[in-house]
Fold:
Amino acid sequence: MPFRPASVSPATYDTDERLRWVERIAHLMDSQFQLPGTRFRFGLDPLLGLLPIVGDLSTTAVSVALLLTMLRHGASGAVVVRMAINILIDTVVGGIPILGNVFDFAYKSNERNVALLRRHYAEGRHGGSGRGLVVLLLLFFVVVFALVAWGSVVLLRWGWHFLEIHSLMGG
Structure:
């Protein structure tokens, strides 16, 4: 069997199909659709966010998957931290009932992260895998994921209890 050298990371963002895939998914999640007669764009993120718990957790999972792909293909630690902060803001504020739904239509964390990576590539600073940072980020997002799920369950229980008390008092 002949020796095959390890594949070398491409020199530009646009030549790597995996990074273009990230860009397409980010567009789908943040800006795929346009409100007719306006310049206002939105994606699946705010629509899925309308589903309690499951919607917010699924959009966060997609964002984390995109982040991990970007990390494996050249994003530096500093850029990854900025990307993670974008996702964290989107997850935390997006998880607030009503206000979070409105916020999800305006704050496009996935496209912000793609723009950060494009700028990083344009500056010629991409490279490295950041495996340790990947593990740390995974642990961090598992904790955030668990806290959002727990908070959502507590909020739903409180709402259910509130409705039960008021239905007993009124009926």
